[in-house]
Design goal:
With 151 residues, the protein is an alpha+beta fold. It contains two helices and nine strands, in the order ααβββββββββ. It has two domains: 37 residues; 100 residues, Immunoglobulin-like.
Length: 151
C-alpha cells in the first residue's frame, strides 16, 4: 500500500511539472489567454484608391463623374465618397459625401451633384470605409472627355 501511495504521489508530481512547463512555455511565446482576449482584429481591409477615371461632358448641363477603382477585395462594401472639383483653385461643387456600394469588379461610380459651366482642372477624391480613408488629387486638362490617373 505504501508503494502505491509513493507511485501516486510521483504521478501527481509529474503531471504538475508538465502543466507548469506548458504554462511557462506558453507565457514566453505570447499564447496566453489574456493576450488573446484583449486583441482586436479589423475584418475590413484598409481602403486604397488605385485608379480614378474622371469624365466631363461638353454641354452646360453635363455633370462630371468619377469611376474609382479600390479593388475587388472591397466588392459589396458600403463606402463614403466625396469628389470635389476645382478650376483655378475655385470650387465648382460642394464636394458632398455620398454613401455607395463598391461594385463586384471593385469600382465606385459617383456623379457630381451639379453641373458646372467650367471644365475642372483638379479633382480631390476621398473614399472611406469603416476604419480607414484615402484621398487622392487628380490634375485635369481643361477639356471634355475621360481622363485617368493611376496610383
Amino acid at each position: 500500500m505504501r508503494r502505491d501511495a509513493i507511485i501516486l504521489i510521483g504521478v501527481v508530481l509529474v503531471v504538475i511539472a508538465v502543466i507548469g512547463g506548458l504554462y511557462f512555455y506558453m507565457g514566453y511565446n505570447g499564447v496566453s489567454s489574456d493576450r488573446v482576449e484583449n486583441s482586436s482584429t479589423s475584418l475590413t481591409p484598409a481602403i486604397e484608391i488605385q485608379r480614378i477615371d474622371i469624365t466631363t461632358g461638353s454641354s452646360l448641363s453635363s455633370k462630371s463623374s468619377a469611376n474609382i477603382f479600390v479593388g475587388t477585395n472591397h466588392a459589396g462594401e458600403t463606402v463614403n465618397v466625396s469628389t470635389h472639383y476645382y478650376r483655378n483653385d475655385n470650387s465648382l461643387n460642394d464636394g458632398a459625401t455620398v454613401s455607395t456600394t463598391v461594385s463586384q469588379d471593385g469600382y465606385i461610380s459617383v456623379t457630381a451633384s451639379s453641373a458646372s459651366k467650367w471644365y475642372p482642372d483638379k479633382c480631390i477624391v476621398t473614399v472611406s470605409n469603416s476604419g480607414s480613408n484615402d484621398t487622392k488629387t487628380v490634375k485635369l486638362s481643361i477639356h471634355s472627355g475621360t481622363q485617368s490617373a493611376s496610383f
